[in-house]
């Protein structure tokens, strides 16, 4: 489709230069009647685009594109997953669009996503090398944007060391401790619940990745991470990652002062922030390692256990820096989204919260908080946990993969370079698997189903993405989110807030983020279930503070190398 515009372009130029064989009559007619020229241009593009489609075979179905600009008007910067789901209902589980010739493919079923991302993983695991995101904003070393290369494999191996399934149990004490600190903050100032959750999410990963303890809501590293998360999801990725400069790369040579080069000014500001985010916390750990005060953490593990003798110190350092930052970045908005969605659903479904609390009362009792050792004995909490993952789908369209070679799938042609999205939002709303899919019903996970259906219903098979680029943090979430859910339900009632007249405020839930299905703050009342629950929170968090000061993060149990593919 790029070719189409390239073919039409020179004809226009020649006509303007005045050296074409066009007669004066023809030229003056065009000038007088620009609509005629536009119509010719339009028809030429339609013919070329159609011819190209025919030549290449059948592209997957999708909304009809405009000539040249494609489906640009079909895209939205907010809740694109809802629109993508509408396309899925109309066009099926493989939907194709293009924007200025850049193909976008939406895989709307578990079958299509696993066929392409998993069975054809060698073709579908690359990342778009976007001019704005990677070149101008300097994101090419962030794991989620790194191409399918040795650098990607090295980064994923490093992540497996610190986030692999066998490493997680060593974080249990820390996960329990950070959860207790979160409960105490909520007890003290429940109206600030959203800030507390943000602090919890940042603090947990800062502890795990950098061994750094957050001491205030406006902590420098927390704010830096939030700022960069916002820059990435609502700045750089705001329009589905595609900027005009990605379509016309020569625009990157415009001087920054040039009218229309605002994107370059933004890019240099964003790049500086991202570099600060990569370097400042990492340099802090390196300085602490030098003076012997570093707490054991992912960064120290990555530096101490570096294994590749073929790499220079500088390369090892770059890998460790960007891998650490990628984990921190990847964990923040996702965790916040999942915890906020949990609160939101408990607020709207007091009957679910009551049933969960009854189970906790009977198994754990009132005198202590649930621990990981209780997990197998709490099937209803497990069902609530599964339903939170399914219902919230924190990253509804995943992150785009790039197809490395032309491919055929079910007789449809998918061009090389197409950006491919796993629409896990649509999968989570599949009525065949999840009747009444928008309803929050943990009971659906208690019904007896055959093994194949159980696998398809398991939200872990779709909410964390697919194949070789699937989320490396899923093992951590499996534990960190579970302990938050169980501890919250054990100690707090989550209800709709009331106004000064005691009238219930019906909260409107708004999703504003372009990448994460993160609800904006909503009014909500969070009160301890009883005086003894409040006392329990105070007691465990007082102990937690003492342990916080003393404790060193235990070493992950397993440093074996595990290849991502
Ligand atoms: C509820 C929590 C989370 C959800 C739902 C989630 C979901 C996802 C999804 C859908 C992807 C894209 C996968 C794909 O491209 O197919 C992803 C990628 C990623 N996630 Fe998570 N995530 C969560 C938490 C975390 C945590 C806690 C970490 C780190 C500690 C993390 C680190 C990453 C990284 C580094 C990537 C990029 C992987 C790559 O491109 O190779 N995520 N995540």
UniProtKB/TrEMBL annotation:
<dbReference type="InterPro" id="IPR002401">
    <property type="entry name" value="Cyt_P450_E_grp-I"/>
</dbReference>
<dbReference type="GO" id="GO:0016020">
    <property type="term" value="C:membrane"/>
</dbReference>
<dbReference type="GO" id="GO:0005506">
    <property type="term" value="F:iron ion binding"/>
</dbReference>
<comment type="similarity">
    <text>Belongs to the cytochrome P450 family.</text>
</comment>
<feature type="binding site" description="axial binding residue">
    <location>
        <position position="471"/>
    </location>
    <ligand>
        <name>heme</name>
    </ligand>
</feature>
<keyword id="KW-0408">Iron</keyword>
<dbReference type="InterPro" id="IPR050364">
    <property type="entry name" value="Cytochrome_P450_fung"/>
</dbReference>
<keyword id="KW-0560">Oxidoreductase</keyword>
<dbReference type="GO" id="GO:0020037">
    <property type="term" value="F:heme binding"/>
</dbReference>
<dbReference type="GO" id="GO:0016705">
    <property type="term" value="F:oxidoreductase activity, acting on paired donors, with incorporation or reduction of molecular oxygen"/>
</dbReference>
<keyword id="KW-1133">Transmembrane helix</keyword>
<feature type="region of interest" description="Disordered">
    <location>
        <begin position="1"/>
        <end position="27"/>
    </location>
</feature>
<keyword id="KW-0479">Metal-binding</keyword>
<dbReference type="InterPro" id="IPR017972">
    <property type="entry name" value="Cyt_P450_CS"/>
</dbReference>
<keyword id="KW-0812">Transmembrane</keyword>
<keyword id="KW-0472">Membrane</keyword>
<dbReference type="InterPro" id="IPR001128">
    <property type="entry name" value="Cyt_P450"/>
</dbReference>
<keyword id="KW-0503">Monooxygenase</keyword>
<dbReference type="GO" id="GO:0004497">
    <property type="term" value="F:monooxygenase activity"/>
</dbReference>
<dbReference type="InterPro" id="IPR036396">
    <property type="entry name" value="Cyt_P450_sf"/>
</dbReference>
<dbReference type="Pfam" id="PF00067">
    <property type="entry name" value="p450"/>
</dbReference>
<keyword id="KW-0349">Heme</keyword>
<comment type="pathway">
    <text>Secondary metabolite biosynthesis.</text>
</comment>
<protein>
    <submittedName>
        <fullName>Cytochrome P450</fullName>
    </submittedName>
</protein>
